[in-house]
Amino acid sequence: MQQVRQVVTAGRIALPKQSAREPFSKPVQGKRLKKVKLLFVVMTCFLLSLVVVAQYSSVVIMNYRLSGARNELESINENIKELELEAAQLGSIGRIEAIAREELGMIEPSVDQINIIAASSGELARMGE
Fold this sequence. Notes:
By secondary structure, this protein is mainly α.
């Protein structure tokens, strides 16, 4: 390559003419610009594909959590049904009466121990005061 020499004459800078063998600077810059644009497009596509993959993975994670929550809800509902059945069994009149007779030693009152009290509607109102 030839060295470019600047000739200064009367305040002007004169550059020697380039030979036909030397490449022009514009095509080199154009190639570089095309490479940079291509690199930018490839990187943008790569980043967008990462965003899409991240979205799909978050959907999969949410579906997994949702199925776990549904399973937990189902087991809780089964537990509630079991507890309601147990409460109904424990609160039955027959069971309470059996416990009163067997464990507490209670007996039914005789006829002479029962007093029937009749109250009129006016007396009921005064009892609530």
